[in-house]
Amino acid sequence: MSVIYLLISVSIFVAIGFFIAFIIAVKSGQYDDDYTPSVRMLFDDETKITPQDTKSPTEEKQV
């Protein structure tokens, strides 16, 4: 039974160690994405439909 207590305590310390390493990596900018914004302008944007574009050709002539 004492082995279970030992394993639980070791696993908690390991989990805390990984959590601290994750926090340090996030604060140091490890997960910042510097590449995507530089290539975003190379991709075409999707066309957006505005209310003015939804009129049919017959409606535009009547106005």
UniProtKB/TrEMBL annotation:
<dbReference type="InterPro" id="IPR004714">
    <property type="entry name" value="Cyt_oxidase_maturation_cbb3"/>
</dbReference>
<keyword id="KW-0472">Membrane</keyword>
<feature type="transmembrane region" description="Helical">
    <location>
        <begin position="6"/>
        <end position="26"/>
    </location>
</feature>
<dbReference type="Pfam" id="PF03597">
    <property type="entry name" value="FixS"/>
</dbReference>
<keyword id="KW-0812">Transmembrane</keyword>
<protein>
    <submittedName>
        <fullName>Cbb3-type cytochrome oxidase assembly protein CcoS</fullName>
    </submittedName>
</protein>
<keyword id="KW-1133">Transmembrane helix</keyword>
